[in-house]
Amino acid sequence: MSEMQKVQVLILGSGCSGHTAAIYAARAGLNPVVLEGNEPGGQLSLTSVVENYPGFPEGINGFELIENMKQQAIRFGATYITEKAMDANLSSRPFTVITDAQSQFEAQTLIIATGARARLLGIPGEKENFGHGVSSCATCDGAFYRNKKVVVIGGGDTAMEDALFLTRFASEVYLMHRRDSLRASKIMQKRVMENPKIHIHWNTEIMEVLGENHKVTGLKIVYHPEGKPLERIDKAGSVEKSGVTVSLFPCDGLFLAIGHIPNTEFLKGQLPVNEEGYLMPQIQEDGCATCDVWSKVPGVFLAGDVVDWEFQQAITAAGMGCKAAMAAEAFLAEQEG
User: Fold this and answer.
1) 140 flagged as catalytic
2) Is 137 known to be catalytic?
């Protein structure tokens, strides 16, 4: 175990919210330390082109945008460490955090911006083509599929919203669900079923993503009877032995809409979460401009997709990072005063 490092502001996560928090905290002279995690840059760094972030009329590569943010924070004095928080003690200030490299930090304030990772199917070709035809954000990537044929996987409201959004661009949208009924709200189901561009494939599972030259070319799928999902099978051969037909479905893109997993394991239940596992902000008082970034523990602030289960956009994450840093600065000033 390394020697304890004492910091005023410790930021966990290096997506849009973490980098923005680092920029603001550094400009305030708080010398923030950022633990980048195992996936520096978060999900945005896997996006080939970002067209909806203000200031870039021609769009910008996701990795480049994230790297620019990082360099901006470093310019103002932020320190970046490529380690991941594995354990934290929030029972009293200063808070302590231990990383996967056994580094120890003692922080006067803590900004949790660890994000949420897309829930994956766990099938061959999925990770290899992520960002090259496989996406978890229709709002981010939908415009790249003008006049293309795309597939949305899922059965909840998010899948319905994504399918409807994609009809603005794609020529055909295929909604595939592994059961014979949807769990989405009735009004969302109605909108999807009434949209002539959307075709629903019931009792369907995707077994493999096919691609060539960094482009998705199709999917290997199976249809199973009676709405009873198969156990997850990665090898098509074992599916064929079960008597279920394996089919090839040509398409240009696959959008995953089966949820996200907030990166909160290291907290071990020390902060409240909603039913989906996202951290819950602690409302302070009427008129509080930074209420959505306060946790129930004074001095611990929340930002980005780890607390935002609704929008999950780069610009909203950056805004929360800004507010978290400014709230931390005000908190420290109040404690010192």
Assistant:
1) yes
2) yes
